[in-house]
Amino acid sequence: MRKLLTALLIATATTTPASAQPIDGFGRHLADLINRYRENHGLAPLTVTQDLVTIAAVHSTDMAVRRQLSHNGFNDRYNRTGSRICVENVGWNYPTAEALLEGWRHSPDHHRNLLEPKVSRMGIAADTRYVTFFACL
């Protein structure tokens, strides 16, 4: 597995992917932006959880290795969580977290995922410039 350039990890995690790095500014900033955006729309913020960070990190690395932005394997990621609902946004080659959030805001399906009221936790990870936001109940 290629070295993850960025991964948002919580400090209390007991296990992380061998290639994961500690808290990254881009991932933390994107999580903060998403939570602010949700709060501005009357929704609760999402809690970052290690299990979802790991799922997001594996998917971001897979996209980077393949050099292809995709949602391939979403059902497998969803099934691993045991949750009743999960949503996923992916992005590639955005220079800033703000630009990525803006892109998602202007895509109806991605926007709906950002404002899904039934999710309560999230994981965000990036490998090179491939980013995965994965959120579940």
How would you describe the overall organization of this protein?
With 137 residues, this protein is α+β, with helices and mostly antiparallel strands. 42% of the residues lie in helices and 18% in strands. The protein has five helices and five strands. It has helices at residues 25-40, 50-66, 74-81, 97-105, 108-114; strands at residues 6-7, 47-48, 86-92, 121-127, 130-136. Strands 1, 2, 3, 4 and 5 form a five-stranded mixed β-sheet that branches. Helix 1 (25-40) runs parallel beside helix 4. The longest helix is centred in the middle third of the chain and has 17 residues, at 50-66. 36% of the residues are buried. Mean pLDDT is 86; it is low at 1-23.
Labels describing this entry:
five-stranded mixed β-sheet, alpha+beta, 137 residues, 5 helices, 5 strands
Stretches with pLDDT under 50, minimum 5 residues: 1-23
What global shape is seen? globular
Number of strands: 5
DSSP helical segment count:
5
SSE succession: EHEHHEHHEE
Helical residue percent band: 40-55%
Tell me the span between the first and last alpha carbons. Answer: 28 Å
Global structural class: alpha+beta
Strand content: 15-25%
Integer average pLDDT: 86
Rg: 13 Å
Reported for the largest beta sheet, the result is:
5 strands, mixed
Topology:
Blueprint (H helix, E strand, L loop, with lengths): L5 E2 L17 H16 L6 E2 L1 H17 L7 H8 L4 E7 L4 H9 L2 H7 L6 E7 L2 E7 L1
Parallel strand pairs: 2-4
Antiparallel strand pairs: 1-4, 3-5, 4-5
Helix pairs in contact: 1-4
